[in-house]
Amino acid sequence: NTWTVWNDVGTYFFPQFFTLNYTQSGYNLTTYQKALASKAIAEFEPIGNVFFSVHNEFPGIGGGSSATGEYVDQVYPWQQAMADHFHNDGAIVSVNANETSGMNTKGIEYWSVRASIDILNFHPYSGTSYNNIDAIGIMFGTMSTYNKVLMFDESHTFENSTYTDAVTREMWAAFTNGIYYLAYTDDHDAFADGDPGWVSRADRILTLKNISDMGDWWNATRNPSLVTAGPGQYWQGIANSGKFYVYYFTGAKTTTEVLINLPAGTYNYKWFDTRTWNANGIASGQIASTGTASITAPVTANWNSATGVVLVINKSSTPVPVNG
Q1: CA-closest candidate to residue 206, choices 144, 273, 117, 126
Q2: What's the pTM value of the predicted model, to 2 decimals?
Q3: pLDDT digits (tens, 9 = 90+) for 173-192
Q4: Cβ atoms of 313 and 262 closer than 8 Å
Q5: 69, 98, 278, 292: least surrounded by Cβ within 10 Å?
Q6: DSSP-assigned letter for residue 143
């Protein structure tokens, strides 16, 4: 149906494309759709590490409502049926889990409890405001209760300088809310060997990857409320209580200490600038907590308010006195 738009056929073929058992000239479209899906699943089966996305930005004709209601409300049975078909053929199944794209949850009820669906996917395009990390946390952070994999597999174009910092914030917001993230690049030339822009962007991704490797993030849960103050206007974070914590701060920079609820014990902490990987971080130390703790903020000159700063806390095996 997207092809018809791009080639000026003059129709979205909507809702026919999504009408189960739609028949034209004696042919059942759904039969052909399912046969094509089964062929793709069979061909990729030997690889073993492939998941299948049923429909990109479903239903793909723009967001909003029509005279007969939200588009997703009109055609959701098709994506449910196709997800069931993919699942029954043995595939790992992802669906676009809201109305086309953007910061909305229209239609989430059709996918969140369906057993055939493994991955709920979104293209949030959360905007360029520094508080986009809080917007993501509020809208998507509680979806872990659905017991599905959560994923953002498309962002604004990472190579576009208008969005590079916004995508950086968005990918940290995704990580600290338990969401897999793809930093989307639309221009293949952006990957040119040695291109300074690509190297810089890749360094931001490497920083997130290396920080995630510092602890068992898969056992951590979203918990921004453990922190009650910090060096940025906005923050999101994950915690594996008493063991491993990652908190991301962005917005106007200050020297405000982090106030955090931590179980009694001794902890090591380290601050990281998100723009470039440095294993030593930009500041580090050790604290003793009696249930709450304060952590000195890094020097403001060492990080950028648009891209943020990350605090990593790990339980220490080397105690220090409670009075520091």
Answers
A1: 273
A2: 0.90
A3: 999 999 999 998 887 777 77
A4: yes
A5: 69
A6: G
